[in-house]
């Protein structure tokens, strides 16, 4: 067993599947190599290997909340099945310390012919609870599931939403040491998901170890403090959730670029074959050449940024109404966020924008010059569009984004970006440079003169 401090230990875990072209090859693989071995011949292999996981290593301490994130097909579900013991690794070992409650595939662990009530007792007995212990918890389970008279109907008649309600209620009320949650919660409605997340936070605060898998980056950021990023079965990064999620966004960005690069290549090759264009007419990605023909160096100024590099964010500053550079504000003050950027090639159709998040990772607001341009186009006053400006290579500029502060007391992060917008509507966007943690500021509440609670001031009025 792993030490008392470690709840989950994954050591060099790999999982390989044998892929057969047809059932006949599977039958051959069962008999032929054995016969060849009897005659001392080299054994023939009738399958291809697919490594769903390759050399995965991490540890999760007791009471820690950890996330696993990655695209579909990255190996997340395979890893969870290995951790819960429903799947055996090809190589490596997994050690767990404590009672595990797992909410994986929808309906897993339920007998479809049994009623909801019978499945509650079945699940409880499987993890070692006595009937009396389950009796004591039954009302809490039924109340959380909130499926009414359906509790005494066969589970096979349940909707997907009812199924996940019952499954989650059973797992969290049975007092696990380790709670493993896969994407199943996405099936529930918004209100039920809110109750689930509240219950998860309650469990983790009581010392339960959480392993959480979701495509919702903000949920992972809010619920976990460390994460593992998987990509095609490879462990790309492990660390603080904020850093891992940044790497995940960078990975998605790189894959999107590769997709469009391949698409451009396919179009060019097809055009050549059809002799509709000559080589001089083939489109080349703007990021591949400078105006003088030399290669463009894609700038990645630090680990918190990514992008094509045709324009970059140099600096972000915050100013108060008096023009002083500060980073502490009160509600009601005017905040100016100045974004300095540099253009590395002749270009137009730019959008300079930002995203503001609080310290809990919740996105409070996102906006950019294109938002203002879209409003002007809609109103018919499109003569002064930032999107229409032409920028020459080497030019350094800045944009001021100004707003009245109505934010609640918190620490806020400013993420800045400059993007190329093919059309003035956000439908065809290419990130030239994105920068996390470009600036920070704090908002204090004036308790005597301007006091409210929550994320932002809704400007309410009392009428009587």
UniProtKB/TrEMBL annotation:
Pfam families: ABC_tran, Wzt_C. This is Lipopolysaccharide transport system ATP-binding protein. It comes from the Bacteria. Belongs to the ABC transporter superfamily. PROSITE patterns: ABC_TRANSPORTER_1, ABC_TRANSPORTER_2. SMART domains: AAA. Residues 33-257 form the ABC transporter domain. Keywords: ATP-binding, Nucleotide-binding, Transport. InterPro entries: AAA+_ATPase (IPR003593), ABC_transporter-like_ATP-bd (IPR003439), ABC_transporter-like_CS (IPR017871), ABC_transpr_TagH-like (IPR015860), Bact_Polysacc_Export_ATP-bd (IPR050683), P-loop_NTPase (IPR027417), Wzt_C (IPR029439). One of its GO terms (cellular component) is membrane. GO terms for molecular function: ABC-type transporter activity; ATP binding; ATP hydrolysis activity. SUPFAM superfamilies: P-loop containing nucleoside triphosphate hydrolases.
């Amino acid at each position: 067993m792993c030490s008392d401090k470690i709840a989950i230990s994954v050591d060099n875990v790999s999982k390989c599947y044998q892929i057969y072209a047809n059932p006949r090859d599977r039958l051959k693989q069962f008999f032929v190599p054995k016969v060849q071995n009897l005659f001392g011949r080299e054994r023939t292999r009738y399958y291809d290997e697919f490594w769903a996981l390759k050399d995965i290593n991490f540890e999760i301490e007791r009471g820690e909340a950890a996330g696993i994130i990655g695209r579909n097909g990255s190996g997340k579900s395979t890893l969870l099945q290995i951790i819960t013991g429903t799947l055996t690794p090809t190589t490596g070992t997994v050690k767990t310390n404590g009672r595990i409650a797992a909410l994986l595939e929808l309906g897993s662990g339920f007998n479809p012919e049994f009623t909801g009530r019978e499945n509650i007792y079945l699940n409880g007995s499987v993890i070692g609870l006595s009937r009396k212990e389950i009796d004591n918890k039954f009302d809490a389970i039924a109340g959380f599931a909130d499926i009414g008279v359906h509790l005494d109907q066969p589970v096979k008649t349940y909707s997907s939403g009812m199924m996940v309600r019952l499954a989650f209620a059973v797992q969290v009320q049975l007092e696990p040491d380790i709670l493993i949650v896969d994407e199943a919660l996405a099936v529930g409605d918004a209100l039920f998901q809110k109750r689930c997340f509240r219950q998860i936070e309650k469990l983790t605060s009581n010392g339960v170890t959480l392993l959480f898998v979701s495509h919702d980056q903000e949920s992972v950021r809010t619920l976990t403090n460390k994460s593992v990023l998987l990509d095609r079965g490879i462990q790309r990064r492990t660390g603080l959730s904020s850093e891992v999620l940044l790497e995940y966004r960078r990975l998605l960005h790189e894959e999107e670029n590769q997709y469009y690069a391949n698409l451009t290549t396919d179009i060019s090759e097809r055009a050549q074959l059809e002799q509709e264009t000559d080589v001089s007419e083939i489109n080349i990605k703007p990021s591949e050449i400078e105006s003088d023909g030399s290669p463009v160096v894609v700038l990645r100024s630090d680990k918190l940024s990514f992008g094509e590099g045709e324009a970059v964010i140099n600096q972000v500053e915050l100013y108060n109404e008096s023009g002083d550079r500060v980073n502490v504000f009160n509600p009601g003050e005017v905040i100016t966020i100045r974004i300095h950027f540099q253009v590395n090639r002749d270009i137009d159709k730019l959008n300079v924008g930002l995203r503001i998040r609080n310290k809990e990772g919740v996105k409070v607001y996102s906006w950019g010059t294109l938002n203002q341009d879209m409003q002007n186009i809609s109103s018919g006053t499109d003569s002064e569009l930032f999107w229409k400006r032409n920028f020459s290579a080497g030019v350094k500029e800045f944009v001021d984004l100004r707003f009245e502060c109505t934010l609640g007391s918190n620490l806020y992060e400013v993420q800045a970006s400059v993007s190329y917008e093919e059309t003035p509507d956000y439908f065809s966007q290419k990130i030239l440079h994105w920068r996390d943690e470009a600036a920070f500021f704090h908002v204090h509440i004036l308790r005597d003169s301007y006091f409210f609670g929550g994320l932002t001031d809704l400007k309410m009025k009392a009428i009587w």
